[in-house]
Every structure is written in structure tokens, then in C-alpha cells.
Amino acid sequence: MSLLTDHVNLNLSDCTDKIIAEYIWVGGSGIDLRSKARTLSGPVSDPSKLPKWNYDGSSTGQASGEDSEVILYPQAIFKDPFRRGNNILVMCDAYTPAGDPIPTNKRCAAAKIFSHPDVVAEEPWYGIEQEYTLLQKDVKWPIGWPVGGFPGPQGPYYCGVGVDKAFGRDIVGSHYKACLYAGISISGINEEVMPGQWEFQVGPTVGISAGDELWVARYVLERITEIAGVVLSFDPKPIQGDWNGAGAHTNYSTKSMRCDGGYEFIKKAIEKLGARHTQHITAYGEGNERRLTGRHETADINTFIWGVANRGASIRVGRDTEKAGKGYFEDRRPASNMDPYVITSMIAETTIRYFKVKFLNFQFHP
């Protein structure tokens, strides 16, 4: 008797040139991911060769029922770690039938910033540390925690090993390998300070690719937790009290920062970020005020400070960067539920073009 897994794992290349393309886009909340699949006549490696598609925006909170059609524009292709073979994942952004980006399409404005000659010349690199929490499906309580109760206090869990310290390692490891298979620039994983909380890092990536790759890495993680029967949370403070929140620390450098003498450019960039602290915080994720309290390795949300090796600062500069006189810095303010298109392009806009030219007409709210 055949099993369901036998059919799920069928290798289509044995019998047809056709492939399956899973189109992925950001839904109406700005953090939810949606996807649907279509059959293509053969392998495709260039997103511009893929057909545009449409969906019912009234069912995703992105259009009214009277005019519900939203158009998907394919933007980036990744190998599909679930169907495998020549099948692909396609990151898309969304437009009206007239060709205007819908309000939740943050990629379009980001792409304009990253294509500006000033920004292109500086080759902005990003490394994003995506923290997240795994929850028990029926009770929405972190995995490894007693239902209705609490584990021992923080301390032994960060990068911990052992059945009483590490919860969800099989899920995390599966996600790591699936991202590598997909072609995502995932550079590492680790357990976080709060039990049931983990982190993966994407980067270094250049420009708009940082947003594309982080969104697809989130999609892959959603699919794996779906299989595992575990709920994935990007809430920046999933458990109130004496527990660390969840962020998306964003490491950043430009060509000027990476060259000899780059430390001066780093300090100037940090000064520009400080001058626009309020605008950045507004765009750095919903509920971030519950996380940025000045405790649990954060700076207070209303305060901008930077320092070398200081994890209680808004911006942290590494010891290696200070010693070398060049390198990168880490913006520790973004929440785990931030939109990477908004964060990465806003940092580039502020540090490369701010004080030079008037800001582009860019909506910073995720």
C-alpha cells in the first residue's frame, strides 16, 4: 500500500519537464505570509521570465470585495526544499491592476532606494539576526515550558545543550538545512536567552536581496513549524516579565566603512541614525515598546546611545571593528516582526543619502 509521503516526495523530473512554482507574498498585516502554487512548462532561473499572477486581495486584507484583484510581480527565485527537484519558491511583491504598489508592498520603495547611484556605489551589506519563539499549538505557550507554569530563570538556556535547556532543536536544524538548500545566505543559528526562543542569521547580503532572503527564510520556517505542529511567533515580547524579548538585530556596513579609515564613516553614520531615532523607531516593528525597556540587553525606546561591545545600546560596534579601524556596526533596535525591506532601505537612506538630498517619498510604517 502506498503512503502519503510516497506521493509528496514524487520526483517529477522522472516523467515531465513541468515544474511547480510557489508564489510567496506578504499579506495584509505586514507580517503574515501567503503563497499559492502554479505549474510551469519547464525550469526557470530568471524571475523576469516568470508570469505575473493575481490573487483575491479581499481575502488577505489588501483590497475591497468590489475591486479585489491584486497582481503579483515575481522578484526573486529560490530552490524549493519541500518539493525539491527543479521546483522553485518565488518571492513576489504586489500591485494594483494599474501597476501601483499596494500599501503593504514595501519592496517597491526599498528597491528605488537601493537602485539610487549613491547607494549602489556604497554596496550596503546586511546581516540580519532573526529571533523567534516556538509555541505549543493548543495553548500558545513556549515549547519546553510547563503548561500554565514557568521554567527556571534565564541563564542556562542561551546556546544551551541538554533536554532541560534546548527545546525545538530538530525544527531549528531542519530550517537551517532547508535554507541552505534553497540558496538563502543563512550564516548560522543559535538558541536564545529565553527558553523556546531561537535565532537564525541571514547574510551578508547586498541591498534588496537582504529583504528577499529574510522573507523567504521566514516562509521556510513557517512551513517547517507547520509540519512539526508548532506555532511560530515573531512577537517582540511574547512573555511579559523577566524574560528577554525577540529582536532582529541588523548588522550593516558600506564600502566606505569596510575600507581603511572606515571607523570615521561608521561614527558619522551612527550620528545620522541618532538624528532620526524617532523616525526609525516608528518603523522598527509593532509592539517594540514592550521590548525596548532598557532591560534585557536593550536600550530604552526613547533613548539613543551607542557603544563598543555594549549590548544595552541602540547601536553596538564590535571590538574587532574598533581595533581594525573599519568594519560594520549592529543596529539593535529592530523588533523581530519588522519588515526587512523597510529596515534595510531606511538604514541605507539615512546613512548614505540623509543630509545630502531630500528624503524620497517613502512610507516607513511596516
UniProtKB/TrEMBL annotation:
It is an enzyme of class 6 (ligase). Keywords: ATP-binding, Cytoplasm, Ligase, Nucleotide-binding. Residues 19-99 form the GS beta-grasp domain. Residues 106-366 form the GS catalytic domain. It catalyses: L-glutamate + NH4(+) + ATP = L-glutamine + ADP + phosphate + H(+). One of its GO terms (molecular function) is glutamine synthetase activity. SUPFAM superfamilies: Glutamine synthetase, N-terminal domain, Glutamine synthetase/guanido kinase. PROSITE patterns: GLNA_1, GLNA_ATP, GS_BETA_GRASP, GS_CATALYTIC. It holds the Pfam family Gln-synt_C. GO terms for biological process: glutamine biosynthetic process. InterPro entries: Gln_synt_N (IPR008147), Gln_synt_N_sf (IPR036651), Gln_synth/guanido_kin_cat_dom (IPR014746), Gln_synth_cat_dom (IPR008146), Gln_synth_gly_rich_site (IPR027303), Gln_synth_N_conserv_site (IPR027302), Glutamine_Synthetase (IPR050292). Its EC number is 6.3.1.2. It is found in: Cytoplasm. GO terms for cellular component: cytoplasm. Belongs to the glutamine synthetase family. This is Glutamine synthetase. It comes from Gossypium tomentosum.
